[in-house]
Specification:
Blueprint (H helix, E strand, L loop, with lengths): L7 H23 L2 H8 L1 H4 L5 H14 L6 H19 L4 E4 L4 H12 L5 E4 L2 H9 L5 E5 L1 E2 L15 E6 L2 E2 L9 E5 L10 E8 L9 E7 L3 E8 L9 E5 L3 E2 L9
Parallel strand pairs: 1-2, 1-3, 4-9, 6-12
Antiparallel strand pairs: 3-7, 5-7, 8-10, 8-11, 9-10
Helix pairs in contact: 4-5
The structure holds prephenic acid.
Length: about 260
């Protein structure tokens, strides 16, 4: 007796079974939302966004992944799930700095936050900061690099938004949605990830090459910059604009799927 060859129908039956299992698990995950809102008291802060927790989850996703599916697909699926869960707990909008490459910033926002979150494009970082500041739980996405203004100068001050995460968080060759940006939000208590502090520097001249990790800068009469420092190396009295989880660089040969 010979084994019957596997047919296309057999393979599709297996795929349907796996899809059903994944969907059932997603529905189960959704069943936790009401309790999450109650336990986190999301109604009081108006925001469910917890970047420190998200960073832990994404690190574990990298460690677990193997197989043929490109890691970028898996990352995007999880980003859509997490962002969807955040939005269902407390609706929010995302304000995007479209003053540079608006297309790249929109891609980043959609990769990171999915398509269910309303997105508004603004003509510069200051407009993003004002929109977030006037909201309860909205997020802002601001492009890093050289800037005609020192837009960061009020970030982190009482009553003003602060930097909460740096994107992209996972760095690997040919990753989609690779625009270099920060996420800002109004102060969210214990929500911040704190391994990297973001500090404002105001110097008479440009700092020596490589002296700091420069996120953004403005050159006018002085050199004004937004610099990332290890939290442990934070100078006393530094003017912080927020903090974020240290991005993870995946080894280029870390497996066929990465
Ligand atoms: O862990 C939480 O606090 C959640 O709200 C859950 C969840 C998720 O979907 O896993 C959603 C939003 C947060 O930013 C982090 C994680």
């Amino acid at each position: 007796m010979t084994d019957q060859p596997t047919t296309l129908d057999d393979l599709r039956t297996r795929i349907d079974q796996i899809d059903e299992d994944m969907h059932r698990l997603l529905i189960q995950r959704g069943g936790i939302i009401d309790e999450l809102v109650r336990v986190k008291r999301t109604g009081e802060t108006g925001s469910a966004f917890r970047p420190g927790r998200e960073a832990d989850m994404m690190r574990r996703l990298v460690e677990r992944h193997s197989g043929r599916l490109p890691f970028s697909a898996v990352e995007h699926i999880w980003r859509t799930i997490i962002s969807g869960f955040t939005h269902v707990q407390a609706p929010y909008g995302v304000h995007v700095d479209g003053s540079g490459d608006a297309g790249a910033m929109r891609d980043l926002a959609r990769f990171q936050m999915g398509f269910d979150v309303p997105l508004t494009l603004h003509d510069g970082p200051q407009a993003v900061i004002e929109a977030v500041s006037a909201s309860q739980g909205d997020l802002g996405l601001i492009r890093l690099g050289g800037s005609p203004t020192a837009w960061w100068s009020e970030l982190g001050e009482p009553g003003r938004p602060q930097i909460m995460s740096r994107l992209p968080f996972l760095i690997y060759p040919n990753r989609p949605a690779a625009a270099d940006a920060v996420v800002i939000a109004n102060h969210l208590g214990d929500a911040a990830a704190e391994d990297m502090a973001v500090v404002q520097f105001d110097l008479a001249g440009a700092p020596p090459e490589g002296a700091f990790q420069v996120l953004a800068y403005n050159i006018a009469d002085r050199w004004r910059g937004l610099v990332a420092l290890d939290k442990a190396r934070l100078p006393e009295g530094a003017r912080t604009a927020g903090s974020y989880a240290r991005p993870v660089t995946l080894a280029p040969n870390g497996g066929d799927a990465r």
